[in-house]
Amino acid sequence: MRFDWPLALVALALIPLGLAAYVLVERRRARYAIRFTNLDVLASILPSGGTAQKRRFIPPLLFALAVAVALVGIARPAVARSIPREQATVILVIDTSGSMVANDVEPSRLAAAQDAVRRFVGKLPGRFRVGMVAFSSQARVAMPITDDRDLASQGLEHLTAFGGTAIGDAIGRSLDLLQESARTSGVDVLPAGAKVPPAAIVLLSDGAQNRGRLQPIQAALRAKKLKVPIYTVALGTPTGSIKISDGGFTQTVSVPPDPRTLRQIALETGGQFYAAASSAKLNAVYSTLASRLSRRREYRETTYMFLGGAALLLLGAGAASFAFLPRLP
Prior knowledge:
This protein has helices spanning about 15-30, 40-45, 50-55, 60-75, 110-125, 150-155, 165-185, 215-225, 260-270, 280-295, 305-325; strands at about 1-5, 75-85, 90-95, 130-135, 140-145, 200-205, 230-235, 240-245, 250-255, 275, 295-300. The protein is α/β, with parallel strands linked by helices. It has two domains: about 1-80 and about 300-325, no CATH class; about 85-295, Rossmann fold, CATH 3.40.50. The protein has a six-stranded mixed sheet with strand order 5-4-3-6-7-10, with helices on both faces. The model is unreliable at about 185-195 (pLDDT under 50).
């Protein structure tokens, strides 16, 4: 829940003070004897016992509660709800460095990524547009932004693993792709106060950056400025390794993922970080992402509910006052 006028809630602090003043006045009144010439009248207005005495506080309590609820309503509360997103642009960024041939994620990191991304694309709403950037030592556009799902599947089939890891350049190329698409279509793809499809980047990587000109955090800051969240996925296990042959010699090289950098990227841009150490976990991550990106949060104002509740409480306070407070005959 959020409040459009939160300063109105400050007035809630006055309610306990009002109740305390009421109790003080009631106690002071009880200290003084009131002279009546008619004892029958005195008996009719004095409380007959402890229960009746407690009932005297019900009307002011209901009134105070009504004021509190009304003040909350004046603050214009709004409740968040999740509704389907009709349009969006998603850039899939896939690591195709040499370490993606590691088989700690069966059948291999790259094959598992291809399968998970293919499932992900199939779960997106039909009006979503998808682009793809593959990166190793360099970043390249593997598929332009399109709503053609078959073209997306074809782009996945041609991915091969080789070279180093340039995460920063991959993010930068993805942002360039979004801006190029905006210029081509003549609209701004960024949700800066306009009714245009929002954009997001889903980045999968299995290692630390060791190539490229743009540092990952620098690229993340650029994405933040453009209001493009980046959802990151760290693929692989800390014990992952590959074998490299050089001049007739074969050596085993450790290729652990770099969750720290990917977590920082997601945190900086308002996205979410995920870790996947198996193909099943990777499929679950992309299924969660498809569901998350397919819906958006919308706030619905509930002022009328609070003001209606305050009116009912005021009626209750009036009825309680008529029933429980002493009256002269």
